[in-house]
Records
---
Amino acid sequence: MNYALVTGGSRGLGAAICKRLAQQGLGIIINYRSNESAAKAVADEIIGNGGCASLLPFDVSSEKSVDTALEKWEDEHPDDRITVLVNNAGIREDNLLIFMQSQQWHNVIGTTLDGFFYVTRRVLKGMLTKRFGRIINIASLSGLKGLPGQSNYSAAKAALIGATKALAQEVAPRKVTVNAVAPGFIKSDMTKDLDESTLKKQVPLGRFGEPQEVAALVAFLASNDSAYITGETISINGGLY
Ligand code: NAP
């Protein structure tokens, strides 16, 4: 069976992406860090709708945790392969740079950027061997324009976009595509502390986006219809730049 691995698939955008990719007939590997009940609810919904889903907890920022979990999955699934990887796990630890703690800097870079590196390096081997793969990196508007209070997050997401462009050129000869998606304000746990009624006035479409809208874009990038798109960063932000 062909599988999609979605990091941070237990909540928010990742959960919506898992459910949407399951509708495309992919088996879903739901990664998360600690929230097992949320991940299980996503798996139950997919299985209840006739799909295939399983949980694979690991901390994307830990090389050992990533390698151990994926090695075990590969050993247990000799006839299956991961054809779609969505690097979605991410955290925010906002602070003005002058006050930013080293840990806030490293936590955010570690989850987004180290996480991309450790997980992608591991999964890429199978894609290159089979000469097919779709890698989709969840970046952010913050990585394109920079946002005050988010120098750690903007740096991590901008670097992720750079890595997307570089890797796309490395693996294109093997028919593996690598793209990024850059959401603006999307309703999720990550944005629930924001003042939506004020911030939505900055958005030309006048509202925050839904996780399902990001999932639809990811599903397109994961499909055969996107075969000629690679190295691209697609914004989904209601017109906010
Ligand atoms: P969220 O609701 O806070 O969910 C974050 C997810 O990432 C959870 O599933 C969490 O797992 C997982 N996670 C966090 N650290 C992890 C780690 N070290 N290892 C494995 N999994 C980890 O966030 P979201 O809003 O859906 O955001 C998803 C992605 O979209 C992030 O990369 C974020 O930067 C990006 N994004 C979001 C927005 C927005 O407006 N929401 C805008 C632009 C970009 P647990 O459940 O176990 O904690």
---
Amino acid sequence: MLKKLFIAGNWKMNKTASEAADMVSSLVDLLVGMESKAIIAVCPPFTALDRVSCILENTGIELGAQNLSDKEPGAYTGEISAGMLLDLNVKYVIVGHSERRQYYGETDQLVNAKAHMALKSGLKPIVCIGETLQEREAGKTMDVIKSQFSGSLAGISAENILNTTIAYEPVWAIGTGKNATPEQAQEVHKFTRTLLKASYGQEIAEKVIIQYGGSVKASNSRELMGMPDIDGALVGGASLDAHGFAELITNALKK
Ligand code: PGA
């Protein structure tokens, strides 16, 4: 089935608003024409969303955020609501990134609540799942994927799963320069597709975008995106430089 690749850049805690504005201005010029061939999004830190949003207006490049609160607006110091993101034309939001699970104690239950809040508000969540090296070496990869899948996506309707992206990000491949091989990634993507089938049926399962994330770069994007169940990429380090990110996307489109 022909699906557009969905490539999103997760900038994590990098770039001031001014640096982000400079980078996105260059990126917009470099990506002219490509936005019709792939869905392309950047996910800057909250403090840069407003400026980046203005630059992206009418470019066809989408804006994403890296997190949101599971709560309605109110007395939650330091949190950011779905409505605040929508007001800045944010369309996508990453939830359950392994760094949030690992360093900020986010559980499947919280990730699930955030995904529901995003969907209910009209944001499209990118829900991250993935095993640690220890879990992979213990042969538990598929068990971990299954349990994060069920926990993080619990109660999401068939209609809403079509507005949800799943990102498979093996924790051992994130920021390490050591990507999963295309075959290793495909194996987990295929398994994830099977889980989608079991919950939502074949037709819907095939439409859901499953991104791969973990050391995707210009030199490996083509072969990773060439795998049948890999529909896009969630890119960290390699999305921070406009030329590098544009090259990564160009290569991915050659798949
Ligand atoms: P990386 O990060 O591309 O720097 O490995 C990916 C991610 O954490 O989303």
